[in-house]
């Protein structure tokens, strides 16, 4: 029986050496790699069968690419969050991953400690946007979400507490950490998050992080 305290990870990349490197890094973080896949189609089936806590998904692969695999995984009941592994020149696939519902974005050549932190953050229900790709994510998001003035009008609908929660989401905190910081129950935090996402017309936490940066709420 799997240890409920160990984060179970599915690693998806079409390069065997990259998968081996990620496996070694995740092992250092006391996480379990429950499966490795070389393309998106394998990943969709493996996610359904293995029920990992998080998927590390390369965006560029032969066959089914990362964004399409992300979309199909996120459509599954009880779908795990997906952490997209990108490079400096992947604007098109970055936009596609954002649209598909990726919970975070991380450079493939990020240091091991950052990979561990990002994986833990996404597995815990938080988002993650690598500072090195944040501006590109913002540029993509601006193109899809309208003007900053439009965002300001949405932001004005939030209560003071919901704004506090949004700021902590943007810092990558999990629900448990937000609850501790604001002296709230996790159930109350979840309620605030659901309400603020609805008011901001956002689908998930990854978009909430980008929105917060875009609107300068940090």
Relevant terms:
six-stranded parallel β-sheet; 11 helices; 2 domains; 56% helix; globular; Arc Repressor Mutant, subunit A; 218 residues; alpha/beta
CATH superfamily of the largest domain: Response regulator
Q: Could you say which overall geometry the principal axes of the C-alpha atoms support?
A: globular
> What is the distance, rounded to the nearest whole angstrom, between the alpha carbons of the first and last residues?
42 Å
The residue-averaged pLDDT reads 86
Number of helices: 11
How many separate domains make up the residues?
Answer: 2
Strand content: 5-15%
Radius of gyration: 17 Å
The largest sheet has its strands arranged as 2-1-3-4-5-6
Class inferred from helices and paired strands: alpha/beta
For the record, the CATH class of the largest domain is Alpha Beta
Number of strands: 6
Order of helices and strands: EHEHEHEHEHEHHHHHH
Outline the low-pLDDT stretches: none
Could you give a short account of the major beta sheet? 6 strands, parallel
CATH topology of the largest domain: Rossmann fold
Q: Helical percent range? A: 55-70%
For this structure, the quaternary state is single chain
**What is the level-2 CATH architecture name of the largest domain?**
3-Layer(aba) Sandwich
Explain the layout of strands and helices:
Blueprint: E1 8-12, H1 16-28, E2 32-37, H2 40-50, E3 54-58, H3 66-74, E4 82-86, H4 91-100, E5 104-107, H5 112-123, E6 128-129, H6 131-145, H7 148-155, H8 160-170, H9 175-182, H10 186-200, H11 205-215
Parallel strand pairs: 1-2, 1-3, 3-4, 4-5, 5-6
Helix pairs in contact: 1-5, 2-3, 3-4, 4-6, 6-11, 8-10, 8-11, 9-10
């Amino acid at each position: 029986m799997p240890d409920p305290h160990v984060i179970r990870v599915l690693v998806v990349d079409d390069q065997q050496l990259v998968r081996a490197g990620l496996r070694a890094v995740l092992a250092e973080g006391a996480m379990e790699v429950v499966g490795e896949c070389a393309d998106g189609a394998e990943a969709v089936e493996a996610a359904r069968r293995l029920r990992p806590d998080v998927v590390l998904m390369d965006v560029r692969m032969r066959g089914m690419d990362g964004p399409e695999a992300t979309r199909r995984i996120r459509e599954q009941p009880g779908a795990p969050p997906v952490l997209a592994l990108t490079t400096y020149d992947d604007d098109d696939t970055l936009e596609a991953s954002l649209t598909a519902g990726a919970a975070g974005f991380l450079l493939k050549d990020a240091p091991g400690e950052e990979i561990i932190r990002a994986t833990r953050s996404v597995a815990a229900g938080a988002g993650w946007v690598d500072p090195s790709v944040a501006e590109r994510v913002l540029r993509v998001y601006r193109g899809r979400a309208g003007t900053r003035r439009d965002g300001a009008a949405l932001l004005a609908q939030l209560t003071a507490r919901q704004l506090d929660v949004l700021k902590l989401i943007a810092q990558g905190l999990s629900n448990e950490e937000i609850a501790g910081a604001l002296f709230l129950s996790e159930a109350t935090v979840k309620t605030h998050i659901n309400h603020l996402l609805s008011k901001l017309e956002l689908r998930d936490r990854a978009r909430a992080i980008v929105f917060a940066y875009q609107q300068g709420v940090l």
